[in-house]
Amino acid sequence: MTIFEAMESRHSVRAYQDKPIPQALVQELSREVAACNAESGLRIQLVTGEKDAFSGLMAHYGKFSGVSNYIALIGRKGPDLDETVGYYGQRLVLKAQMLGLNTCWVAMTMKKGAVKANCKMDKDEKLVCVLSLGYGVNPGKAHKSKAMEALCGPGQKPDWFVKGMQAAMLAPTAMNQQKFQFTLEGSAVKARATGGFYSKVDLGIVKYHFELGAGKENFTWA
Asked: What CATH number does the domain containing 189 carry?
């Protein structure tokens, strides 16, 4: 599976089979986590075989079941933390999809105390989100997207920009809200969050997708 196939096939999954992730895949994911941490300065951590974080009423309310593996997205507090978490978290989401695993972005419906108890954190660090991880009971369902013009405005755009937007439109966002806006200024692209829950995390997610679709060699971020 290519990364572009992963973008198209990946959907949020909340119900998981009671099936452990093979050690070879755990090791491959761990290497990707380490690479993301080295690039970003985050302290992302992979936790396997841990059922307490998704055992409470909040997880039940969020329709999660069978979750015993997750990736904790942790980093030093600061104005760019949420966007950075979104960018690198989605990189791990697509990596997991390419390995045949399913995921879901989780911000509220888990026991944060249980997650923190299974991770290493300093006082100046924050747990932003978690990615549930494993073999889904089903592959999830696609959600409707806004029209491209609603997300980047009308008018003719170069092919690379259109491809970037097509990729961004496949990106998951909180409650499928797609609260982001892209504008093209010459060869520079500006992306901004337009409000809503976890929209800065979403911005990092959609920027990662846009880069994959557009090709980083074709533009710079404004």
From this structure: 3.40.109.30
CA dist., res. 48 & res. 71, Å (int) = 9
Domain total in the chain: 2
* Domain boundaries, position 36: 3-134
Does position 212 have pLDDT exceeding 80, yes or no? yes
Is-above-0.70 flag for pTM?
yes
Give the residue among 40, 132, 122, 128 at the shortest CA–CA distance from 93: 132
**Using CB atoms within 10 A of its CB, is residue 181 exposed (0-12), middle (13-18) or buried (19+)?**
middle
Does residue 198 have a pLDDT over 80?
Answer: yes
**Which CA distances in Å does 63 have to 13, 20, 141?**
10, 20, 15
Residue with tokens 């491959």: 28
